[in-house]
Amino acid sequence: MCCPPAIGHPVRVLPRVLWIVSLAACGLQAHTGGMVECVCPLDGTKFEAWQDFSDTAFGTRLDLKRLGPIAQPWALAQCPKCRLPLFQREVEFSEQEKSKLRAIVGGKRFTEESKGVSAYFAYAVLREELKEDPFAIASTYLQASWEAEETGEPAYRKAVERAIRWFDLAADQLRVSAEKQNERQLAIYLPIELSRRIGEFGAARERLNASASLRESGIGWMNGALDLERQLINAGDQSCHDIGEVASRERSVAAPGLKTAVGTDQADTKPAPNSSTTALNSVEATLQNDGRQLASACAQYLLENGAKEVEFSVDPESGTVSGPIAEFVKSIAAGTKVIDGSYEPGGTFSLQNPGAFAGRAVVFDDSGRIIR
Ligand SMILES: [Zn+2]
Hints:
Layout: E1 17-26, E2 29-39, E3 46-54, E4 59-60, E5 66-67, H1 95-105, H2 108-113, H3 119-129, H4 134-148, H5 155-173, H6 181-197, H7 201-209, H8 222-234, H9 245-253, H10 282-305, E6 310-311, E7 313-314, E8 321-322, E9 337-340, E10 342-343, E11 348-352, E12 362-365
């Protein structure tokens, strides 16, 4: 299936590591980061900054922020002198690029807009000035909104409003692009969620009502997310919600008496099975966990390499993982066969184990949740 580009971390500068810390550990999953020594490529300023190195996500929010022992977005170092966000990893800027960046960071707009804002907000402004793709600019403002959750209003609202404006531009610009329809669908969907999160329920409802085409998007979680959006908008709920709630809510809205409390477009909703609420045997539980680990490794690989898809395979005899993601997950339980080992954000992959789910091929979404 197809796919939105991952909204994750930008490429990062990873200079000399001073120390590494595992922030949280839960079985094999962990989030590690450390202080690194950075040097600004424009003015040579040396400084220390926190950088994240690896983590594992367990779920995804409606605004596509990943959940779990994970930093989202990954820390972005920023020069304390010129405020350049160090967004480029292990790649030297050419003299031409440096002079372009110097002109931007020294210019009126960046100087004013980068004052007192988060690193991602400054990076988004920089991307605007670099005249980058609207979807990329919007995604960076979205990341700035995650960063601003700590600081709260008005920084959060400001980042969200910018993200909405750029997603709108992206949706409009991508109207004619046949190969980027997934980006366009996300650019239409995300402003619904973001309008809701800042309490603009009228705008959120209007956008939701105008988004019927998204139901044909082919993005696995989209229809459930749209249904959940309608319920939350109707309830005046602006808090964070997990895409994983979709399946359980669908079951609850199907219960008599609750149906009228939700939107009118529930009738065509097919409840999705949610394996986490069913008792699993140990092979099934292991398969479920392996799916999560593989998804997380794939997502990590894409983010670190700026790739759009990745293939993996597993030797069923030994459980050894091969392909570029082997760097992140070396092995899974023996006996599991890969049916579809092609991973793309928004897409699916499938595994099969004779001891799990009656031996049928199990389909996982891009977060490693079993969807069928
Ligand atoms: Zn600098």
